[in-house]
Amino acid sequence: MKIVNSPVEMKNLSITLQRSGKTIGFVPTMGALHQGHLSLLNIAAKSTDATVMSIFVNPSQFGPGEDYDKYPRTFELDSKKAQDAGCDILFAPTAQDMYPPNYSSYVDVAKLDTKLCGATRPDHFRGVCTVVLKFFNIVNPQIAVFGQKDAQQLIVLRRMVSDFNLSVSVESGPVIREKDGLAMSSRNKYLTPHERRDAPLIYKGLKGAKELFDSGERDGDKLIEMIKTHYKSSAMFTPEYIEVVDIVTLEPLKEIKDKALIAVACKTSESKTRLIDNIVLGGEL
Ligand code: PAF
User: Fold this and answer.
1) Which of 179, 235, 225 is closest to 203 using CA atoms?
2) What is the average pLDDT score of the chain?
């Protein structure tokens, strides 16, 4: 596995790969790699000749008071995991190289970036879209793979790719869970033992709602009520939102006619960690 830090070198490398007829599969990450990230690498490797994984804790997607400074940075361990998982090129630029002095261009995916997580993280998706567009231009991938765990991110990025006529195909990988159902996330490291004990409830609530849907319930509010009942049984987290939304517009759905996304965000009470999870009803994202 080759490790590349410079965006210029990465761009030259991707041009060379493409000139020699090789396709590139790209997995952007912020590091602290877990099985969820590595599963995306496997998806990328299945349909491309070379895989590129980026590790970059992107400052522009963190708001004031969020966890940019304490976000886990475990590069040595990550590069070993990426190599063992068959990654060909690990791209790890610095913040100075990605956002040099006088940097001024940002991407706004209007409306979608104000829903769900966007309501409390106003510039988050602006930062995500900006860095991902920069990565697409540097890495030139044919395929980019994102986890369904960050469902809103996936939906916002698909909109950006379509709106800007980008030629990359955005694919998704399923949520990878711990044995007890907790969605794998780099932020799970922050959880206290009590929070970790109760965290599987987040998925239990979602599964309960899906069972209700599968038994014929189509009223979005009834599904939300069922999830709230589950969540009330723990003092370890408070829901920030629980929403049943359209998978393209992210508009709330009172009545589910076709597919729907149930998305939740919770704040834990001891470590104040923000956990997100979701489940798709009636198909895939
Ligand atoms: O999902 C993430 O880890 C980040 O939001 C991403 C896509 C790597 C952009 O920084």
Assistant:
1) 179
2) 98
